[in-house]
Amino acid sequence: MTWIELLAMVILISASGVMSPGPLSFAAIAAGSRSGWKSGLKIGFGHLIVELPIALAIAMGVAIVVSNWLSIFGGIFMIFFGFMTIKGARKMEFKEASGNPILLGIGLSALNPYFILWWITIGASLVAIAMELAGIFGVLFMYFSHVWMDFAWLAILAIIGHQGRRLGRFYPIFVAILGAILIAFGIIFIIRALL
């Protein structure tokens, strides 16, 4: 495996995690409705704070266990943010992610068992290939080949959210739907944990 082959593999495989709809995606759209693309970058930075240690932990052979409490707390966090989004839409005073998009990125990443599951399955495979190529330097190359996609995608989604203001009187409905989607994700996470 060459560096170019690793880069191509990481980009193609990472798209499955980066672009799949999820709580972080909808949060970026909602936060971007107020502050534009910068909110997406801030959420991406919060995501990086959680994601990089996981990638390095996998590289060092640390086992990461996804437990039911993670799903429950993640679900509660999403439901709370969803209600805050709907409340803000009603008043047309939507504020970014309860004040701090970086903390939102951290919370929605750390408390999302599907994100962690992606890393201990698909991501771990990429880490193993990168380790074979160049040890920890290969892992860092692999990770930064992946994470730029997170930043780019979240910034694009935030721009979409910001452009949503052009919907005029339909804008509160647009933002409220995003909040409802987050609440639905939260409920699904909690139900799956309890079952």
The tally of beta strands, per DSSP, is 0
**Helix-residue proportion:** over 70%
SSE pattern, N- to C-terminal: HHHHHHH
Number of domains: 1
| Overall outline | globular
Mean pLDDT over the residues: 80
Structure classification = mainly alpha
- Count of DSSP helices? 7
Oligomer: single chain
Task: State the distance separating the first and last CA atoms.
Answer: 42 Å
Please state the CA-atom Rg, rounded to the nearest Å. 17 Å
The biggest sheet amounts to: none
Low-confidence stretches: 92-98
* Percentage of residues in DSSP E strands: under 5%
Topology:
Blueprint: H1 3-18, H2 23-35, H3 37-59, H4 68-91, H5 101-110, H6 113-163, H7 171-194
Helix pairs in contact: 1-6, 2-3, 2-5, 2-6, 2-7, 3-5, 3-6, 4-7
Can you offer a commentary on this structure?
The protein has one domain. It has helices at 3-18, 23-35, 37-59, 68-91, 101-110, 113-163, 171-194. Mean pLDDT is 80; it is low at 92-98. It is mainly α and 195 residues long.
Short description:
The chain is mostly helical and 195 residues long. Helix content is 83%, strand content 0%.
